[in-house]
Amino acid sequence: MQFLSSKAVLYLRIIGLTALLFFLLKSPTSIFNANFSLLLGQAMRLPTVTVSNENPLLGLVALFVFGVALSDLVPLMAENTQHFETLVPVRLGFFFFLAIFCMISEYGPIANNIVFTYSFLEIWVNFVLFTNLRDEKYKRAREFLEKHGDEMREMANERVRPINDDE
């Protein structure tokens, strides 16, 4: 049984990305020095990222985060569930492989505590979304069959014709 609907989880994801965007612009050291990120990075033996507040790349990262949040908000407002049923498994796979790459690689720009923490959180959110979307799809299919099941059986019976073996 679901605790939150997929819409609620998507809205929470958008709110989380918006909060990340705000902190990237106002106080980036609070993100890079967060206890959870440092602890998770040390547990996985990943290098720790140190960034100053004046780093110009943080603006680019903030724009990327804004684009990701906006790309979730527009289909969510249009109630396009097929978009998310297609996109969430792809995201889940991508961030799963990114987290694995962080753990087995020593490539500093990608294999660090911040990328791994973000990948870890995306895996968790997308897994919750995937299971919720699958349950909601099952419920929609069950309701459709309950409503139109008799009509579908009649149409199927009209199309079924016995084969004559007179030859």
TrEMBL record:
Keywords from the UniProt entry: Membrane, Transmembrane, Transmembrane helix
Transmembrane intervals: 57-78, 90-108, 114-133
Coiled coil, from the record: none
Identification of the protein by name: Protein ILM1
Source organism: Australozyma saopauloensis
